[in-house]
Design goal:
Helices cover 35% and strands 19% of the residues. It has 460 residues and is α/β, with parallel strands linked by helices.
Length: 460
């Protein structure tokens, strides 16, 4: 690595920027934001940038064309951004002869310093650079990293700054490094990022005082319909930070790979007539683990509040006084329909959508059939594969046209997704003749007819 990344105090640095084009304007805005002493030499600047310079006591603008007589006496750093390569070269030679550091925006090699792309979560700053060789890649990486750094990291940085003085006063120097390791791996950072500053402050004080955490926290997290790319950023963060994970049958194994290797993992999935752990047992496990001071992740396929029994689980947590948060996931109806090119609503087909489960608590498929028959409604049935003959017959018996399109989306959003299209009259026979595997989502309604036209993902 030939470049040395450093962070300078902006208010202790002085710059001259020569040029007023788009690249120069970006450098000027960066330097103004950092409170640098700044001299701009350019014949023209946008009005808003002129006003910004005018309102900055440490900045000034010389509205003129630059030439080789330009004076760099008051600058430590010189940015050359004219469209005249020969002039940039001459000014670079002059500036270096006067002991200045030079950045030429028209060169990738003749530079003493370069401007990285900066992700600003002040006081946290993350710089990304390709040494000036690939600005497009720099911007690409910055965009990707920004998505993983919530704005609340600024609050986390401020809290840590405020704690430093308290730590110096209360802990001897030899104990501080151990404290910070304990603090950063505690639940405080997550409390800050999830916008619970009061709890973060209380827990920080308890850790400074040396008192033990008496209870942990539970996270009820939706893992989405299968494709790991559909995880939310918060879901991914909590998956990576959990101490113990209880996961369901429908959670993609690739998502489980995000779990820390130090975390405990327990399968508590449920299939029809095959419950690895009864629901009440799961509820008690969540409470017990949290009361042991652990960060407990309950990882559920889809969305925990849509046929996921998430409400039952957090009821028990609430009754036990365990702090918790719920992270929604993309529910199967939305994810599978989107990956199949079947819009759940469409102005020409359906103005409403209804979600029902085809597998009730008592094991039957006894639905309010008369409520499900609407000409401009999409009907989505979860866990209804084994009940397809009953579902289709009941819908026809209650007035739904036998020619109504129906889709069975098998393993939706996964690489081996399959979409099976028929009518409610013919689908039972189709299912009997083919081997379909769960998870399978059922979509019924006119919108299914759009699949051939709007499908964008190749079904296997």
């Amino acid at each position: 690595m030939m470049n040395l990344p450093l962070v300078f105090r902006g208010d202790h640095s002085s710059f001259v920027v020569v040029g007023g084009g788009n690249i120069a304007q970006r450098k000027i805005r960066t330097l103004l934001q950092a409170d640098c002493t700044l001299q701009v030499v350019a014949p023209e600047l946008p009005h808003d940038l002129q006003q910004h310079i005018l309102n900055s006591p440490q900045a000034n603008w010389q509205a003129q064309l630059a030439d080789e007589s330009l004076d760099f006496a008051d600058a430590g750093f010189v940015v050359l951004a004219t469209d005249n390569g020969e002039l940039n070269q001459a000014l670079a030679t002059k500036a270096r002869s006067e002991g200045r550091k030079v950045c030429r925006v028209d060169q990738t090699t003749d530079n003493d310093f370069i401007f990285p792309a900066v992700i600003d979560r002040s006081p946290v700053l993350v710089a990304v650079s390709t040494s000036g060789g690939s600005p497009a890649l720099t911007r690409y990486l910055k965009e990707r990293l920004e998505a993983f750094l919530p704005l609340e990291y600024a609050d986390l940085g401020k809290l840590m700054q405020s704690l430093r003085e308290r730590i110096k006063q209360k802990l001897p120097a030899k104990e501080r490094a151990a404290f910070w390791r304990l603090w950063i791996h505690s639940n405080v950072p997550e409390l800050v990022i999830s916008r619970q500053p009061e709890r973060a402050e209380v827990l920080s004080e308890a850790l400074i005082a040396g008192s033990e955490e008496t209870r942990g926290e539970a996270y009820l997290v939706g893992a989405g319909p299968g494709d790991p790319d559909l995880l939310t950023f918060r879901a991914l963060r909590l998956i990576q930070s959990a101490d113990v994970v209880y996961y369901d049958r429908l959670v993609n194994p690739r998502i489980l790979e995000f779990i820390s290797p130090d975390a405990e993992k327990f399968y508590v999935g449920k299939a029809k007539s095959d419950h690895a752990v009864p629901q009440e047992g799961i509820n008690q496990l969540l409470v017990k683990s949290a009361q042991e001071g652990k960060r407990v992740l309950r990882l559920k396929g889809g969305d925990p509040f849509i046929f996921g029994r998430g409400g039952e689980e957090i009821e028990e947590l609430a009754e036990a006084g365990v702090p918790f948060q719920v992270v929604p996931g993309i529910t199967a109806a939305s994810g599978c329909a989107s990956y199949s090119g079947i819009p759940l609503t469409h102005r020409d087909h359906a103005q409403s959508v209804r979600f029902v489960t085809g597998h009730l608590k008592d094991g039957t498929c006894n639905l309010p059939w008369h409520e499900l028959i609407h000409p401009h409604q999409t009907l989505v049935i979860y866990m209804g594969l084994t009940g397809i003959p009953v579902i289709c017959q009941q819908l026809m018996d209650h007035g739904m046209s036998a020619s109504t399109p129906i889709a069975l989306i098998e393993k939706g959003t996964l690489p081996d997704q399959k979409v099976h299209i028929s009518t409610i009259a013919d689908m039972p026979a189709y299912v009997a003749e083919h081997t379909l595997q769960a998870p399978t989502l059922t979509v019924i309604g006119s919108v299914v007819s759009l699949h051939d036209k709007l499908s964008w993902k190749n079904d296997s």
